[in-house]
Amino acid sequence: MPRLLTGITLLGLFASTAWAASDKDAAQVADGPAPEQARAVVEQLQEPLYNPFVERYVLDELKALRTQMADQRAEMIQQVVDREHSAVDRAVTYATDTITYFFYVIAAASSVLVLVGWSSIRDIKERLHSVAEEEISRLVREYEARLASIEEQLNLKSRHIEENREAIDATNEVQSLWLRAGQEPNPANKIALYDQIMRIRPYDPEALTYKADAVLELGEAQWATNLCHQALRHDPDNSHAFFQLACAAATLGHFEDAVRYLEETIQRSDTYRLDIMEEPTLEPLKDFPPFRALMGLDPEAGE
Fold it and tell me: What is the radius of gyration, based on Cα positions, of the chain?
């Protein structure tokens, strides 16, 4: 550094001297009359304007100065680079330490959890599983019960529907047989139709009483009596059964029984009075006093 200052000082002195000399010569040249005067002045010089030693010294100093400045620049760049490297190293170290500490914390927490809370977590897990299984089982049982109830209701409704359908079919068939029996003139064929009705509806009181009527047409009074008693066992208030019993009793000659059955008939349905008076099988009773008294006939008018 002192050498640099000395070089700078000498360079300044040399520059000032050269500048002054050049100014002086320039002034002389400017003040001179002509170039010939300048040439004369040059020829009168006793020593050279430039000293080689001084020039060499100045050049060396300039070279040293430039070299030193280049070294300082390189040193400054190196310092900047070193500082940048140091900053990067610190940042990387900080990040690495942070990540390392984070993993240390996780490892420590995991270790504590494994050492202290493993049994609790296992118990909680087992408890959750058991509670979930119990709840699922309860829901399954509940829905199974509901499905069973729904299935039972559906089966019951299906049975009712099937029974109603069968009842409708049977009713239609019975109605058809009744129509055929009403249009059939032959008593034997009527009996066959009534038997078909009773196969569909066993011990139907109406079928039994109308069969008894057809049997009476064939002259089977005792058979008709048995059929009427069967009808009364299933329907004790069947007025038509009592009417057919009266007809059968009159056919058999049991007039008192016939009148008693006619009385039962009228008690249950007074509309049978006209049928009683028009029934051919009851003609033998018209002269029988109890019959006339029952029907309100005048004995003297009857005689």
Answer: 75
What mean pLDDT comes out for the span 276-299?
83
Residue range 139-155, pLDDT digits in tens: 999 989 999 999 899 89
User: In a 3-state reduction of DSSP, which class is residue 64?
Assistant: helix
Buried b (16+ CB within 10 A) or exposed e, 82-104: eeeeeeeeeeeeeeeeeeeeeee
Nearest CA-CA partner of 208 in 220, 218, 194, 222: 194
Percent of the chain at pLDDT > 70 equals: 79
Q: Is the pLDDT of residue 96 over 80?
A: yes
Those residues whose C-beta lies under 8 Å from the C-beta of residue 110, and which sit 6 or more positions away, are: none
* pLDDT for 30: 46
The per-residue pLDDT for 303 is 41
The CA distance from 243 to 229, in Å, is 12
Interior/surface letters 118-145, b for 16+ CB within 10 angstroms, e for the rest: eeeeeeeeeeeeeeeeeeeeeeeeeeee
Return the sign of the alpha-carbon dihedral for residues 194, 200, 204, 206. negative
Decide which of 3.30.70.890, 1.10.10.10, 1.25.40.10, 3.90.550.10 is the CATH code for 186-302.
Answer: 1.25.40.10
Domain boundaries, the chain: 122-183, 186-302
User: Token pair of 154, please?
Assistant: 């559906």
